[in-house]
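Person: I have long wanted to understand how a fold can be written as tokens. Underneath my words sits a plain record pairing an amino acid chain with its backbone structure tokens. Those tokens are not coordinates but codes from a learned vocabulary of shapes. I should like you to check that the lines agree and flag anything odd. The protein I mean follows directly.
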Amino acid sequence: MINQSEFDRLKSELSGQDPLIKRVKLSDIDLDDNSLKHNSIEVDGSRIPVSNKFFNRLGQMVNLNAGLINKMSKNEDKEISTKLLQAVKSYSETRDGGQEFLLIGDKTSHQVVNITKANKYNRLSNDSLFNTASTILNEIPDMHIESIDNHGGDLKINMIHGSQVGYEKIGKDEVFRFGISLVNGGTSSRVDDFFYRLACANGAVARNLQTAFQFGQGQDTFRELLTLMQGWAKTGFVPQTFQDRLERAMTTKASYSELERALYSVTNAIQERDVDLKQNLIKGAENQFFPEFDATTKRIFRKGFNPMQLTDAQKRFIKTDATIWDVVNELTWIGSHQTVFDLKNHKGFKVEGGNLFAKQWDLEHAGLAQI
């Protein structure tokens, strides 16, 4: 739990660490023949560095297929992709010349990382997000700050209600507390669901279980949130579908694709420069968190197939011995605890686990194949 002094310290540290924004029109952004090659644009006569993903976002703003730009970049056709982007941008200027956009800059990397339509930018400042959390603590009885995560450009203030809910039908240790996560993303602020499993101190952030709330403009939106929260507090913030979803997660097998995705998300986050040591750490992480992956891989080989040659669509049909809940638990445990593996942005696995819990699972309706 986060106490008041820790909350105040983090607020002081993170307030002001917001994206830099500049309001522009498409005509203010100049692309020359080397813009994509050198990752730069010109605005008001100044050369500005941009991230690798910026031109994909710019392409999306002018309705240009981002996959086409990616394909051209991979084939080293930067000159062609530059000409195409210049032409489509010029056409958009004549059609929607008055449309305003926001260039979004990152203070750490000193480059523009995104562009969005100005009327779609609904992000609170970090200071306002902390003030929102303070108001909720004052207005909603028995609310607490469980953790504050700042990773991958997102700030999350995870809040839980004091009520504890047990699911003895599932297991005597299955006791949870529920709440919300106040999230500042790249271009918007929103409220996600948050749940906390007491047995292993795992926290998970999930979207659209109950809240699905996004901040708009003005105080009316905030008053709407408080009204909603007062209603959620009466039920301890427990999403109506949580128990049913938990029961199904504990009986639905994870597919080979889902398990592989979880494993690789963890092993790809291992920060180790020594190649041999990193391979040992990767194997250790697999054995500790996802041992079912190796067992399934060996079973696939025994059946006469090469897992390396299977498509993701094919992997979705292959059952593993891990349940969805097993995988969710491992991911949220990694996100809630320090490990020996030195993972980059390890708290992000609270979101990875929550997203897996909330999504439609590959084998959720596999039983229907027998009808």
Observations:
- The radius of gyration is 23 Å.
- The chain has a mean pLDDT of 88.
- The chain is about 40% helix and 20% strand.
